[in-house]
Amino acid sequence: GKKVLIVYAHQEPKSFNGSLLKIAVEELTKQGCSVTVSDLYAMQFEPRATRNDIVGRLHNSEAFNYGVETWEAYKRGALSKDLVEEQKKVQEADLLIFQFPLFWFNMPAILKGWMDRVLVQGFAYDLSKAYDGGLLQGKLSLFSFTTGGSQEMYSNEGIGGDIRYVLWPMQHGIMHFCGVKVLEPHICYAPENVSDEKRKEMLTAWTQRLKTLWKEEPIDCSPEWYFK
Amino acid sequence: GKKVLIVYAHQEPKSFNGSLLKIAVEELTKQGCSVTVSDLYAMQFEPRATRNDIVGRLHNSEAFNYGVETWEAYKRGALSKDLVEEQKKVQEADLLIFQFPLFWFNMPAILKGWMDRVLVQGFAYDLSKAYDGGLLQGKLSLFSFTTGGSQEMYSNEGIGGDIRYVLWPMQHGIMHFCGVKVLEPHICYAPENVSDEKRKEMLTAWTQRLKTLWKEEPIDCSPEWYFK
Lengths: 228, 228
Hints:
2 copies of one chain form a homodimer.
Chain A: E1 3-8, H1 16-30, E2 34-39, H2 66-75, H3 81-92, E3 95-101, H4 109-118, E4 140-146, H5 164-175, E5 181-182, E6 186-188, H6 196-211, H7 223-227
Parallel strand pairs in A: 1-2, 1-3, 3-4, 4-5, 4-6
Helix pairs in contact in A: 1-6
Family (chains A, B): Belongs to the NAD(P)H dehydrogenase (quinone) family.
Subcellular location (chains A, B): Cytoplasm
InterPro entries (chains A, B): Flavodoxin_fold (IPR003680), Flavoprotein-like_sf (IPR029039), NAD(P)H_dehydrogenase_qn (IPR051545)
């Protein structure tokens, strides 16, 4: 069976994001996948990139450089335990699903902190090992999120612009940078502002998509997909 | 004199970001501005959006909805003290400067957490009060940041794409959404990979820009600026 890591960033299990998470765990497990969930709020995951991420002495204690220090710590096995655990989950996964509500055209800070702290140099990329040559090659990723605004607002003519504009930093700038292929995002628009029936349809659509997920081809993660 | 709030997200005062902060404080103070700094790492600013942001009872304790709860808490004066303090600084400022290193095509999580938690509904925007009608009208903002990648990488032909693509969620999705006008960003490309002389030139350029900052016109914060 395939291995899936779901990195989940919502405070409330009864939320719509909580339902989407539950569906993914159930459907993928039913398919025979091994599913791991990093429930960031429940874990009280630390989003701040600080000196605490390095165990023991610093490479250069005169002037703290987070990128250099975590790179060096990774090489000598001196990253903090919570990071090592997340990296192990990433290493083992065939597919990474990120489930979250869009906050300010972006992921919530707690999830951004997961990216900032887990995907360190040496582990996820290296000097000349980025994008198609990134160190996490062979894996897939999928951004699944809810919005506050409607689909019309996030269109080319809408005030929020094309929703793909907000996907660029996440999909290209993070996942593609690490060599991870990107599946089509899964977007539920404004679940708080639609009818119960529409919400049920959205949940069913997610279940249906998951049934054939492993047959999907990744997107072409180039500027054309986002901006043309 | 004008009032300036600098929201600063770097761990190390001796860093290049630290030098840019120092320059801004000195130059703007010399001009007679009143400058306040929110030094997020030094403050150990909390980036996680949780129930702790609401003092006392919840509006709906059955299912926690951060957006609804902070909106309700704002209206009845029940937001946590650290948020109230940041909101007061924002309220008083004529100009907001965000100083940070670009992490993963975006701001560091600690700064994203400042956006997520401080700019709550009722304070920064409201139901039909967003974009040009946002509640923080009359203020200016400026994103000043350093990159790891070179200017060539962040060009239209570069693998990172036009740097303006990463500015859309920050400038349009956050500041413009709240009614704040946006000045041209100030970008120092790859300060860790250039000569001492080039670094000095970058610092001088920042000082020079600040001297005539109040004469600048905001950008036209529409899709054309970012994607055409």
